[in-house]
Amino acid sequence: NYAVITYTRFRRGYKRYFAKRLMDIAGGLVGMLITILFYPFVSLAIKLDSPGPVLFSQVRIGRNGRRFKIYKFRSMYMDAEERKKELEHLNETSGPTFKMKNDPRIYPMGRILRKFSLDELPQLFNILKGDMSIVGPRPPIPAETATYTSWHNMRLAVKPGLTCIWQVSGRSNISFEDWMRLDNQYIQNNSIKDDIILIAKTFKVVFKGEGAY
């Protein structure tokens, strides 16, 4: 009986993994097509507003602590990292993350990119590569995971994603601890049906630009 139960669970898990990966590839390909169409216009807007590279890459932590480079449309001035230290006392969120509603490091067009999550579009390449999934906890930076407690680390048990429960529940308006709880809630109860519902909710939130800064 134990062997049968174990096999059944493995089979269900494999089927879900295969279905999720197919959904990621299909969604990633469609999304990359949209990104390619947007790219010339976004590139021009970025260059006019803040000279420098159009794309921004950063090391993030993925499943089981694996490091990978994430890609975004650059939404901050080139000296953003250098200026972060002088702004840390103005942090408007809890935990190891840094958020400011009126962050002076973000140039005007960058605010629009962030408000409607357009800066995240290049991460569809990460999804096609297999570093990320469409739905899953957002990938943290190494400095954040260095402060994680054991239960925070649970969110690293799955592939990180573009969207999850946090994104449709208030985003940056939610405290760090509540964010971690929502991610762990997803990991424990996720299904393909839940993923589809979260994707649909994400479109609604993104169009409204809720909680993004």
The number of helical elements comes to: 7
Strands, count: 4
The secondary structure category is: mainly alpha
Q: Ends: how far apart?
A: 52 Å
Shape: globular
Oligomer: single chain
Estimate the helix proportion, in percent: 40-55%
Q: Would you identify the regions where 5 or more consecutive residues have pLDDT less than 50?
A: 1-10
SSE series: HEEHHHEHEHH
Topology:
Layout: H1 2-49, E1 55-61, E2 67-73, H2 80-87, H3 108-115, H4 123-129, E3 133-135, H5 142-145, E4 161-163, H6 176-189, H7 192-208
Parallel strand pairs: 3-4
Antiparallel strand pairs: 1-2
Describe this structure in words.
The chain has 213 residues and is mainly alpha-helical. Helix content is 50%, strand content 9%. It has a two-stranded antiparallel ribbon with strand order 1-2. A two-stranded parallel sheet has the order 3-4. A hairpin with a 5-residue loop joins strand 1 and strand 2. Helix 1 runs antiparallel to helix 4. The longest helix is centred in the N-terminal third of the chain and has 48 residues. It is globular, with a radius of gyration of 18 Å. The termini are far apart. The N terminus is likely disordered.
